[in-house]
């Protein structure tokens, strides 16, 4: 019987290996393991054997059954991969043809605004820096001089992730970044002054209404060098605001404020008019807050390995959706993310439209 089992194993293995498609493999499986299969037929002979022979032969047949089943699975996987490779090689889809040619694509106001921002700040000598959306507590809060117990660290304001037990304690607490300032920390730790960067990207906070969404975009700027002072900050922001809003001699005011990562800190307002219920940027009787800024706090420089006795700098930040709403008259922040093509038809930009003018010569 042992010799018969070995011969059967060889025959079945050859039949399985010869199966060149899934249908023939299924037929091989039925011939081997089906109700009337060859292994099943042998199993039916166990009843006429002596107890000792039944035990030995039964174990050998069970082993054969397992080995043949494993061969079938291996061959099935290989044939499925072969079939998929053939499909990938022969099936094509021409994605250059629009399924709805009557519709015209539009550039989203966020994309357009980001292009405008890059154009303007590039003329000032800024480069673009990038960083991860998933941050750790140290880069997002501690390095930026946020004290323990600060409201921004609370669960109701920040999207925290489960801690990683394999990480160092300093970096174990993960979160979705609440601002792009964490990229400034990473850049300062990896680069020596002078530094002149802007950072743009998604940020996340637990909030949702007409002027807040759980995910939104920010732009932040950072300049670190010797002898940098508040006058440089004011000149930079004035040039930016006049270029972005396309208003010459735009009225601006800096109001004292507080941010953990800058000292002194300020909120920036620009002049506007709300006559007849509208909003016009420029000379007028009202003010409109657009961004926060300040001189980089010495503690932040120390945390990044920069000597605050030799270097100082300024930073600023603003919401990209907010300045897009102000410039293009978009009333509700939530509509940016509702994927309504009618909204995009109205507020979107033609693909060939160029970003706003850069700084004046």
Q: How many separate domains make up the residues? A: 2
Q: Can you give the mean pLDDT? A: 87
The Rg value, from CA coordinates, equals: 34 Å
Oligomer: single chain
Task: Output the CATH class name of the largest domain.
Answer: Alpha Beta
Total strand count, please?
10
List keywords for this structure.
361 residues, alpha+beta, BirA Bifunctional Protein, domain 2, 2 domains, eight-stranded mixed beta sheet, two-stranded antiparallel ribbon, 10 strands
What would you say this structure looks like, in words?
With 361 residues, this protein is α+β, with helices and mostly antiparallel strands. The chain folds into two domains: 2-90; 109-347, Bira Bifunctional Protein, Domain 2 (BirA Bifunctional Protein, domain 2, 2-Layer Sandwich), CATH 3.30.930. Helices cover 39% and strands 20% of the residues. The protein contains eleven helices and ten strands. It has helices at 2-18, 22-33, 38-43, 51-90, 109-123, 137-140, 181-190, 230-245, 298-303, 320-328, 341-347, and strands at 127-129, 134-136, 174-176, 195-204, 215-225, 252-259, 262-273, 280-281, 286-296, 312-319. Strands 1, 4, 5, 6, 7, 8, 9 and 10 form an eight-stranded mixed sheet that branches. Helix 1 (2-18) packs antiparallel against helix 2 (22-33), helix 1 packs parallel to helix 4 (51-90) and helix 5 (109-123) packs across helix 10. The radius of gyration is 34 Å and the shape is elongated. 25% of the residues are buried. The model has no long low-confidence stretch (mean pLDDT 87).
